[in-house]
Amino acid sequence: MKKIGKQTFSIKDNVFVRDVFTIVGKKEGEGPIGKKFDMVVDDDLWGEDSWEKCELKFQKEAVKHLMKRNKLKKNDIDLLISGDLLNQITSSSFAARDLQLPYVGVYGACSTMALSIGLGSLIIDGGFADNVICATSSHFCSAERQYRLPLEMGGQRHMSAQWTVTGTGAVWLSKNGSGPKVKNVTFGKIQDLGIKDANNMGAAMAPAAYDSLKQHLEDTNINYDLIVTGDLGTVGKSIVNKMFTEDKNSIEKKYDDCGTIIFDIEKQDVHAGGSGCGCSATVFGAFLYKKLLNKEINKLLFTSTGALHSPTATLQGESIPGIAHCVGIEM
After folding, report:
1. What domains does the chain contain, in order, with CATH numbers?
2. Please, what is the Cα angle at 98 between 34 and 76, to 5 degrees?
3. What would the pLDDT profile of 74-112 be if each residue is shown by its tens digit?
4. Rounded to whole angstroms, how far apart are CA atoms 162 and 203?
5. In the chain, count of helices (H) and strands (E)?
6. For residue 160, what pLDDT band results from cuts at 50, 70 and 90?
7. What is the pTM of this model?
8. How far apart are CA 318 and CA 197, in angstroms?
């Protein structure tokens, strides 16, 4: 009854996006939407003794500030769904340890924001929860250390490389209240273009973005005001536009990407744009969500994209598969 088309789940009950809290680093705060974030932290360690501990703090503080701003108590929250890029999603798990909320950890690489919102919406729609918080985070320094080269090595960045966003977003979903509603969720299928270059994530994720977007649009037949992918950057965004154009179904006039929204590509030396779990999370919370609230748009298709990259698998000759999840939100 609640599944439409091949891969899309229709949310029948009310699932409101009640509020979002975002925290970003200094570089992100200097970008085009810098004034829209809830908090900008100038120190990339934020008083901690490692980047990984700093990322943990980012996520924990975002959830705490979200709850405080909305006068939510621990007993009000039925579930925290969160994930990140680090080994065994340690930022999320250790933040959940300190927050002491019922917790489900998820891994979708940079697709984690849409993944957690999608899962949270289905849980509320199924009658299993009233209030769910969905969160994710990333940190430029911790991601570079894990996936590419430690910063101390001073490696030359490729022009196709993207800048991992230092940031976090925490989203409060509720069956009660008002505001934008989650209406449809499409969980994507893994697509693999055979990319093995960890400095070309946009190309690795683009086929998954195209596949999920195309399926969602076919399943729902909704004419969205704005379609935004997670963090394909300039390279992946151009590939998606090309794939839709070749399919004779161009979306270019109403399509954008969080990786090209969060930074000034020309002035900030981020090469192909932004990436990381925090990219779509912070752009959604600070920019897209507010467009819905202000009724600048009424129908948003939010699609986070993820490169399911393992340094170990890459060293063993494996490629980098991609995944993308779509969330249709209407005001």
Report:
1. 3-174 (3.40.47.40), 181-330 (3.40.47.40)
2. 80
3. 999 999 999 999 999 999 999 999 999 999 999 999 999
4. 11
5. 11, 15
6. low
7. 0.95
8. 10
